């Protein structure tokens, strides 16, 4: 056989030998695939030798080509056989290593966040006495968040809430009170609703977070008085805390209620005594009372903004912080715990059976 052809054929045989030796040592599909590409791929070792075919004298090409094709198909068969062998051994291996006597593993299971639990609980307390649940956008217009609530532009009342502006006329809502306007604009009295949701303020420390949850409650009808407000809030507080929790109103100011009040409840930690085990109660600073929400009778200006005649209708509104209620309910002193997502904290509120 002529010299050139012989040289190439020797290379082919070497290549086949080398390929088989490597293939024998492989233990994974991935390695087999890499080897296949390395030898049989478009730019692989076999293609490299085949590229030399045109250099051979014409009469030698057919014999060489035939041998090369035979080798190529042997390599392909070997790859396939190896793949099958690996598949089989994996199946056998898994089967033999499966220990039926091991106990089962309980999968991780999520649970409802404590803030959501308290929020749901508060909503169901109000649903029971006929309040609807309404929701609205977290990016709010200046009109709903401020103007319609009797907080005019450039008025010092705006300073009450450190606001995060999106544009000049769009804000991240600073409270859930815009839902009073949205709901009343769409309905005629009687209206009774609560509006839970996230609110945002430029504020962050031990007891303030830039995002927190509020629940707004409001009722508008004929002949509504502050006595109904007091009765409703007492029912709410006693449902959430305990039936002997007391309620006290302190005069306050909100632009959208008149008169306005802040509501304190008897401290749920020391039961209003100001002392825990003869030590000063830290939750209420010994006063026996803790602040829980703001409220009041809906201001006639607000009724005008939603086209209710203030001579005919009256109503009350209140707004409470959900995290604050949760902190009082569970005796938590750092608000940030709610947002750190530390499972050691969160798991304590897991109502599912212990694993
Ligand atoms: N919107 C008030 C706040 O966020 C709370 C409030 C609501 C007060 C309704 C009175 C009536 O501070």
Main traits of this protein?
single chain, 355 residues, alpha+beta, BirA Bifunctional Protein, domain 2, 2 domains, 7-stranded mixed beta sheet, two-stranded antiparallel sheet, 11 helices, elongated, binds phenylalanine
Which CATH architecture of the largest domain would you pick?
2-Layer Sandwich
- Kindly identify the CATH topology of the largest domain: BirA Bifunctional Protein, domain 2
CATH top level of the largest domain? Answer: Alpha Beta
Principal-axes geometry comes out as elongated
Helix coverage percent of residues?
25-40%
Total domain count: 2
Please trace the helix and strand order, writing H or E for each element: HHHHHEEHEHEEHEEEEEHEHH
Describe this structure in words.
- The chain is an alpha+beta fold.
- The chain has two domains: 3-96; 114-349, BirA Bifunctional Protein, domain 2, CATH 3.30.930.
- It is built from eleven helices and eleven strands.
- Strands 1-4-5-11-10-7-6 form a seven-stranded mixed beta sheet, sandwiched between helices. It has a two-stranded antiparallel sheet with strand order 2-3.
- Strand 6 and strand 7 (257-266) form a beta hairpin.
- Helix 1 packs parallel to helix 4 and helix 2 packs antiparallel against helix 4.
- The mean pLDDT is 91.
- Phenylalanine (PHE) binds next to strand 10 and strand 11.
SSE diagram, text form:
Layout: H1 3-25, H2 29-40, H3 45-50, H4 61-97, H5 114-127, E1 132-133, E2 139-141, H6 142-145, E3 170-172, H7 178-185, E4 191-200, E5 211-221, H8 226-240, E6 247-254, E7 257-266, E8 275-276, E9 279-280, E10 289-298, H9 300-305, E11 314-321, H10 322-330, H11 343-346
Parallel strand pairs: 1-4
Antiparallel strand pairs: 2-3, 4-5, 5-11, 6-7, 7-10, 8-9, 10-11
Helix pairs in contact: 1-4, 2-4, 5-10
Bound molecules: phenylalanine (PHE).
